[in-house]
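Support case: K1U complex. Customer-provided input:
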Amino acid sequence: MNIGRQYSAIPVPSEKELRYGEIMTIKPLIILPDPILRQVSKPVEQVDSDILKLADDMLETMYDAPGIGLAAIQIGIPRRLLVVDIAREGEEKAPQVFINPEIVKSSDERSVYEEGCLSIPEYYAEVERPAVVTVKHIGRDGKEHLVEADGLLATCLQHEIDHLNGVLFIDYISRLKREMVIKKFTKAAKTKAV
Ligand code: K1U
Ligand code: ZN
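Agent response - structure generated as follows:
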């Protein structure tokens, strides 16, 4: 029996035709308490056209939500791949793709940010994390890169890398609050399932 199934959204991807006939797909998001969100994602073995298409679909899904980050597991794909774009409204888009990201350095300095999650819609909570992180990853070009991030990018990258390890931002709040959030989303999922 796959208990995860009962919470899963009915997968109804929508397609968007872009210039040059390219098709990008907006994928359904996996929502709490789906146990898929607790899976530990496996490394991407090869940066090929399938992975690049997946990254493009993730960006389209993130922009549609809208959000500033997305991990592959949030659309049900347990691979170590995430996308971010922290450009503000009115600014030019600045999509970034991180394949097999790893935090190789974290500052002792901490910062607090009110986080949200596309898999836990309309719930926000303050989370304290290292203020600056250095992230090693493979980019769209298939090459290794190092990014030193601070501010919102540092917070967002840590939130997304947590997703790759099955960790959610509600894991940093009190047990009582977390249980209340899970209870609320479990009830909502059961109501939608009928
Ligand atoms: O991983 C996710 O669920 C995406 C999440 C990323 C994130 C937000 C805040 C702090 C850390 C990580 C979101 O994008 S939630 C939506 C959101 O923050 C937002 C939506 C529209 C405009 C600006 C922000
Ligand atoms: Zn999230």
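Residues 1-11 have pLDDT under 50 and may be disordered.

Case will auto-close in a few days if no follow-up is received.
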